[in-house]
TrEMBL record:
NAD-dependent epimerase/dehydratase domain span: 6-181
Xref: InterPro entries: Epimerase_deHydtase (IPR001509), NAD(P)-bd_dom_sf (IPR036291), NAD(P)-dependent_oxidoreduct (IPR051783)
Molecular-function GO term, any one: aldehyde dehydrogenase (NAD+) activity
GO CC field: cytoplasm
The name this protein goes by in its record: NAD-dependent epimerase/dehydratase family protein
Length: 325
């Protein structure tokens, strides 16, 4: 019998695409899927995986550990996609650190055999990182969010779980990565020239499939993994492609990094984003994409997906609408 899965953050950006990947899977039926949603009034994403009977829905909040009691009962695999992103250190610690600790304890109590946690390469701090493997880099998180997610990782890893660390995640529902770069270009009124810093990128649809495959695989995946497209993209290519696909009007000629810093003086958040883009954030694959066992589902098509340019083209209409709003 296929395993029973719990998906946290099922109504969010990555969690929603994990639910979509479960709909594609030929292994797991909706009756074997439980979706954890925080908002009591929110409907299950897409009405639940699969065309037929909906998945089971439970309402709980990572900020309220008592509400998690029983959510893992009867569950074999937990796909933990929920997190809080923001500058409120108390809230991010409550949700990401303490909430994950409570969830992992509940999964252990209920006898779940695997927990897969979607983290972020931001737990490494600021670059440059060039072709780095997971075991080569110490954790040095800078922001409240990345510090709390590094703490969440430790709870999962201590329980023998799987941690996935994507860098730039793009696709429908992304309100941070591509919109942030578009906002940076708007402030500069120009693109960046000759910026060769390399960045790892992954399409959220490929990430969703990766999360499902990590949960279902018969491989021993315990530990941390980089989950990005194997080909990094330069900063200038990122921004030029984005401006072209989204139809951004940039009246000025491309500027170099020094001129960009001058134009962004007094805008600390924009300077922070520029600093990230101007340094290598290239995280090498440790073999995660190298093949999954039959447990991942025949014909599931787990792989890193299309490269950056094609992925952005496929999501461009969603981004244009979002940026226009």
């Amino acid at each position: 019998m296929p395993p029973r899965l719990l998906v946290t953050g099922a109504g969010g950006f990555i969690g929603g695409h994990v639910v979509a990947a479960l709909r594609e899977s030929q292994t797991v039926t909706p009756s074997r899927i439980r979706l954890l949603l925080r908002d009591p009034g929110s409907p299950p994403p897409g009405g639940g995986p699969g065309a037929g009977a909906p998945a089971e829905v439970v309402r709980a909040d990572l900020a309220d550990p008592a509400s998690l009691r029983g959510v893992c009962d009867g569950v074999d695999v937990v796909l933990h996609c929920a997190s809080h992103i923001g500058d409120d250190e108390r809230l991010t610690r409550t949700v990401n650190d303490h909430g994950t600790h409570a969830l992992v304890e509940e999964a252990t109590r209920a006898g779940a055999t695997r927990v897969v946690y979607v983290s972020t390469a931001a737990v490494y701090g600021r670059g440059p990182f060039t072709g780095a493997l997971p075991g080569e880099l110490p954790l040095a998180p800078v922001s409240p969010t990345s510090r709390s997610r590094a703490a969440a990782e430790r709870h999962v890893l201590d329980a023998g779980g799987v941690v996935l660390r994507p860098h730039l995640v793009l696709g429908a529902g992304d309100r941070w990565v591509v919109p942030g770069m578009a906002g940076l270009l708007g402030l500069l009124s120009a693109s960046l020239k000759d910026c060769t810093a390399r960045h790892s990128v992954v399409d959220v649809r490929a990430l969703g499939r990766a999360v499902v495959a990590a949960g279902l695989s018969d491989r021993d995946l315990a530990g941390a993994h980089h989950v990005n497209h194997p080909e990094p993209v330069t900063c200038s290519e990122l921004l030029d492609t984005l401006a072209d696909r989204l139809g951004l009007r940039l009246p000025g000629a491309p500027v170099d990094i020094d001129e960009a810093r001058t134009r962004l003086a007094g805008k600390p958040r924009a300077l922070h984003h520029l600093g990230i883009l101007a340094a290598d954030h290239w995280f090498a694959d440790d073999g995660f994409w190298g093949g999954f066992g039959a447990g991942a589902g025949a014909g599931f098509g787990t792989g890193p997906g299309a490269g950056f340019a094609q992925s952005l083209a496929e999501h461009a209409s969603w981004y244009r609408e979002f940026v226009d709003r």
